[in-house]
Design a protein that fits this description.
492 residues, 3 domains, three-stranded antiparallel beta sheet, globular
């Protein structure tokens, strides 16, 4: 085929794809508004019991907005094909749909930053309705560019905005958002590929109804999501979603925790030794007066640092707990995890902490400590690398990497390459650094946060280091008997 013929053929396919998308969106919009009209009538007539749980939530939201949008809801079936001008009027159907999304984010605490932002607004005297609308204002900044460019939703950017604005005064937020530059999102080639696959699948199909088409697409999507993906070490997209968002909670087909590990297996684990020493010394000194900044007193911090140096032969003096990343992290985790407390600027043990001092540190304590370290402590807070949240979020996938690759010693950079292969967009978050290549930054952050400060700290791997000139450190990693006994894998 000549080049011009290929171009013409591509252009025709693009036009056909655009027409198919437009037609599908038109049909779904018609169905959606008719469905919203049905929900509205049930809500208006006080017949919410006729609706399912999700529809009931939507019906209640519509009732909350009835004064603003009564006519639009009342005649939604008649004006189903009406376009709303985004420059001059609000789309009531989009508004209540977004409202429902916000309700779900708060209910599910997913992302947790949305729940935290909501609570901050409530504490600042906002009503629930006002707080949800402020959440919606932030979501819209990221949602519309995503739909326009067919890219994936920029969750990291959204969460960063929520963190940034939760400390602002509610009445200032909308004005500040208007001054923010528009988020620039790159078109995601994977999203485009999925869309092209879907349109190609639909091209020669004929359906009698929208429901039939939707059922077909649901089945196609479900089948696609259960296919093994080589970059995910043979896990499917559906499995990877659970690995990232519900690790151990909903991944029993992949791995389970052996909660019957013995005390002997964890006694010499570094974080366990530090925890036991910390709690015993605090029991002897409590109540221990905090510094003006709320830190551990200098003498206590220096004692911990002396007994547990960062590395053999790497001794350096400290003036505060903040000078020792491990001690600072440990104090925070013990506080959040409920072993210690600080009241009236004085540290003391809780009942949980006293139980450890009196009865020893057991498997339950170990798993609670690990869960706290994984989910309530920000790994990126103790270094100067970019946020790279996926390193902490993808910890179970990284453990899967270790299971597959680190039975014998393996180079740390090989693990990093496999991690990047699974999550290639991680490289885009470190673009523009003038001093390091993105791959090198990711490798350093991955080695420090996952391999050293989690796996090695919790006794899951051993690490051999080799200094290479001029300043390169080569890591070799191998899983420990504790790793093998604690994690029971169902995959091969």
């Amino acid at each position: 085929m000549r080049r011009q013929d290929k171009r013409d053929s591509r252009d025709q396919c693009c036009k056909k794809g655009t027409w198919m998308k437009d037609s599908a969106f038109e049909a779904f919009r018609q169905l959606n508004r008719e469905n919203l009209h049905r929900i509205w009538r049930c809500a208006r007539d006080e017949k919410l019991e006729d609706l399912n749980e999700e529809e009931q939530r939507l019906g209640k939201i519509m009732l909350q907005h009835s004064e603003e949008y009564f006519n639009q809801f009342e005649f939604a079936d008649v004006v189903a094909d009406r376009e709303f001008d985004p420059e001059s009027e609000a789309n009531p159907f989009l508004h209540v749909t977004l409202h429902a999304i916000m309700e779900n984010q708060i209910k599910d605490r997913d992302p947790i930053e949305a729940f935290q932002f909501y609570n901050a607004m409530i504490k600042n005297k906002c009503t629930r309705h006002e707080a949800l609308h402020l959440l919606m204002a932030i979501l819209i900044r990221f949602l519309f560019p995503m739909l326009k460019t067919q890219s994936t939703f920029p969750l990291n950017g959204y969460c960063e905005f929520l963190k940034k604005y939760k400390s602002r005064k509610p009445d200032k937020i909308k004005g500040l958002l208007e001054d923010e530059p528009d988020p620039v999102e790159k078109k995601n080639p994977k999203t485009t590929q999925i869309l092209d696959e879907m349109l190609s699948t639909l091209e020669n199909k004929k359906f009698q109804s929208i429901d039939e088409a939707q059922n077909f697409l649901d089945a196609w999507s479900a089948n696609r999501n259960t296919e093994a993906v080589p970059e995910f070490l043979g896990l499917s997209r559906e499995q990877m979603h659970r690995v990232l968002y519900r690790p151990f909670e909903d991944t029993s087909d992949i791995v389970t925790l052996n909660e019957n590990i013995s005390r002997e297996e964890i006694t010499e684990v570094r974080i366990v030794r530090e925890t036991v020493y910390f709690l015993k010394r605090l029991s002897e000194l409590e109540p221990l007066k905090a510094t003006v900044k709320g830190n551990l007193p200098r003498a206590f911090a220096q004692e911990m640092h002396s007994v547990f140096p960062e590395a053999p032969g790497f001794d350096y003096p400290i003036m505060s707990e903040q000078d020792d990343w491990r001690l600072s992290a440990l104090r925070y985790v013990l506080d959040v995890g409920g072993w210690i407390k600080k009241r009236n600027q004085k540290f003391s043990l809780t009942r949980r902490g006293r139980n450890v001092v009196n009865s020893g540190f057991g498997a339950d304590d170990f798993f609670h400590l690990m869960d706290t370290y994984l989910h309530k402590f920000n790994w990126g807070s103790q270094d100067f690398y970019p946020s790279l949240d996926i390193i902490q979020q993808g910890v179970l996938f990284s453990c899967c990497l270790l299971y597959r690759k680190a039975e014998a010693h393996v180079q740390a950079d090989k693990l990093t390459k496999d991690f990047i292969r699974a999550f290639p967009t991680i490289l885009t978050t470190v673009e523009g650094d003038p001093f390091s290549e993105p791959e090198d930054l990711v490798h350093m952050a991955y080695s420090v946060r996952f391999l050293q400060r989690f796996c090695h700290y919790f006794g899951l791997v051993t690490i051999k280091t080799e200094q290479k000139p001029p300043f390169v450190i080569n890591y070799e990693v191998q899983i420990t008997p504790l790793f093998k006994n604690m994690l029971i894998w169902k995959i091969h």
